[in-house]
Amino acid sequence: MTTRIFVALDTPDIARAQAIAHKVRHHVGGIKLGLEFFMANGRHGVREMAELGLPIFLDLKLHDIPNTVAKAIQALRGLDPAILTVHAAGGRAMLEDAKAAAPAGTKVVAVTTLTSLDERDLASIGVKGDPHEQVLRLTELARLAGLDGVVCSGDEVRAAHKGWPKGFFVVPGVRPADSAVGDQKRVVTPRAAIDAGASILVIGRPITGAADPDLAARAIEATL
What we know:
Blueprint: E1 5-8, H1 14-24, E2 30-34, H2 35-50, E3 56-62, H3 66-74, E4 83-87, H4 92-101, E5 107-111, H5 119-124, H6 131-144, E6 149-151, H7 157-163, E7 168-171, H8 190-196, E8 200-203, H9 205-208, H10 213-223
């Protein structure tokens, strides 16, 4: 992997996704395809994106009963993404079944607490404590379930990494110092996230929304 940046191609337009990926391919380590892309383009779209030769991070955040999640992951066979997400809140049995169903070469990582949520948001859904506490709780659950790692914000990655030195840590909500925060509530700069223990960074709008995505990716890469 040339860089630890994965560019988030959150668009239903496969032509746009391909165009951006083609422009930045020499300055990113992979591409993240989420629900928006997958719902519009499905398995065929993922295969088309894989033809660019970059690792695929399939960010579907699966969350259901253990059997359903396991069968959903089995249904993805043939795509063999480098990284696949599930929700840690699905519980240990679901996490264990998800890992067991995934291809041997796929890292299964658990989403802990979305970077769009803060303490008030968590309280509204009955979760006591701040996001930091919830992230560490779910990180330990993912570790015990045998997953490869977790998704957490840059605010929590240092503590999560300390508790799980061999874990794989995906940090979204990363924003360069001069970039707009948007709908994220817990953000850090790319350099700060790497210094804190991030394995890869997921960066979307600061790259995809730039007038020159390649230049934006190169500028962020230079800070690392």
